Amino acid sequence: MLSAVIAADGRLVSRDYSVTPAASGPDAVVAALIQSSRSTLDAAGVTAGELRAIGIGAAGLVNDTLGLVHTSPNLPGWRDYPLKQAVESALGKPVFLINDAHAAAVGELHFGAGKGCRHFVYVTVSTGIGGGLVLNGRIYEGCGGLAGELGHMVIDDQGPMCKCGNRGCWEMLASGKALAVEARRLIQEGEPTSILHYAVDAESVDARAVEQAAAAGDALALSLISRAAYYLGVGLGNIINVFNPERIVIGGGLSNIGDRLLLPAYAEAGRRAFKQPFDTVKFARAALGRDSGVIGAAVFAHQKTEQINNNGQVK
Amino acid sequence: MLSAVIAADGRLVSRDYSVTPAASGPDAVVAALIQSSRSTLDAAGVTAGELRAIGIGAAGLVNDTLGLVHTSPNLPGWRDYPLKQAVESALGKPVFLINDAHAAAVGELHFGAGKGCRHFVYVTVSTGIGGGLVLNGRIYEGCGGLAGELGHMVIDDQGPMCKCGNRGCWEMLASGKALAVEARRLIQEGEPTSILHYAVDAESVDARAVEQAAAAGDALALSLISRAAYYLGVGLGNIINVFNPERIVIGGGLSNIGDRLLLPAYAEAGRRAFKQPFDTVKFARAALGRDSGVIGAAVFAHQKTEQINNNGQVK
Questions:
Q1: ipTM for the complex?
Q2: Do A274 and B140 lie within an 8 Å CB cutoff?
Q3: What's the predicted TM-score (pTM) here?
Q4: pLDDT in tens, B54-79
Q5: Is the alpha carbon torsion for B286, B291, B293, B299 positive or negative?
Q6: What counts of helices (H) and strands (E) characterise chain A?
Q7: Does B197 touch chain A (CB under 8 A)?
Q8: What are B226-277's pLDDT values in tens digits?
Q9: B60 Cβ neighbours under 8 A, 6+ residues apart
């Protein structure tokens, strides 16, 4: 987990990286989160009392109104966990919950590659695929904070099963996980490749190993990246047809492969989407890297606090 | 084409149905549209001068800011046609253009099945599939008025070619057109069925013939409707995961098949979408029938006029 103290101008004053004890269950994770928050507060020389608000970006289905994390792909055993209340009672400040990809989109909107945009879709391509919809200048959350699950948009109805229960989800075909699974399958089938030079063994081949082998010219690795790019492009085409966005901002670890992955993906999107919205959309790489989420969660908490204060004054 | 005079309370004062001379090109269509407008004005006993504004809902890619119909699936030869200007100069009143499915969504929002909703997705399932996104209580148009092309969201990346240039589009699998194409294919392959009793010949089998045969218990027709329902459900699942809407409003001719099509589609969406947003979404049938588009186009034109007037006062 990453905790940070953020100034009003978006400047990151201090940060703390800590291990998330996911396997130990919610209480242990919350204890670690409080500990990490105190560390970054200490580093910044601020007390919790001096904070305006606390924003938490969490992977998975998160509902700020109810203060719950419904489920989280990386936090086994979490089900409708009252994270908001748990952290509020420990730190004594209002806490606001936001999906991590939404948080990253808000960060990019205010201080990154989405600055000045009224309509952009943020796509994070890493182990899975997450999304954040910035529509009319604001993060769009749907009726329960759960909008933007772009990684679970089906692009091949008979495709591979996803652990969400669906099949053929975008993230099962175009993410780092998809790349690794397909690489392992082909290696097991005996395809000649140098990918194994970049991993301990066949079982531990990950997207990074494929990327390194591709950079060294390995044919299988290159074809695997082409395949991921194709599927990435199919989903981007859907986003263009559904949202007619000004911009699509792409972040996440897998996007660091860069042009080798992204250019053919944009080309596939161009073959798929209507000409007019494709001609006007711009593709941009996320600008804030790993900090987009903490910065966005802070902006989100700040805005929610303002809203509450304004409503209080009006009434 | 359907022209109507709409009162401020959404009441339809008069309507005129006329044939659209699509094959004769844009000028003939505009002439017919002016003629039809004059007929409905006469029937209502109003002059064009007494109108507040004119809204036109048109199928296809429509940009109100530019005043253009980029392309329209049912209007061959239309390319970036300046429809706004053409009708304004003929009728002497401000004209506003909106995609027909967006117009229907606006109609349902104000006077139909979307009343009182902040977040709903309108899906029209007829020959093709169109969509209208009502987000935060307003139609969402994207940066160029082209958002909501849900029928051209890919749900099977290797699926059938669509005339939009894409393949595996939702409307190639779940629309009336898809139903008819698949029926004709199976009949040609010699599948036993009574569908032909409801059509002149195999070539003219349409969704209506399949629907009638299904109502009479024909096994092939029933399986064709199950297939369309399955694909309809896949797309609805995507909509739930991407938008987390309060409601999905379904209109269009094919939806008149009713429960036989819709209930299995909703069930498939439930197998596909995340549990939380599926549990909170409500499915509703469109309430305004064929009038949703004209009513919505009128509301849209009214709102645009108000916006322009308000901006005028503020400045």
A1: 0.94
A2: no
A3: 0.95
A4: 999 999 899 999 999 999 888 888 99
A5: negative
A6: 10, 11
A7: no
A8: 999 999 999 999 999 999 999 999 999 999 999 999 999 999 999 999 999 9
A9: B69, B70, B71, B72, B73, B74, B75, B78, B99
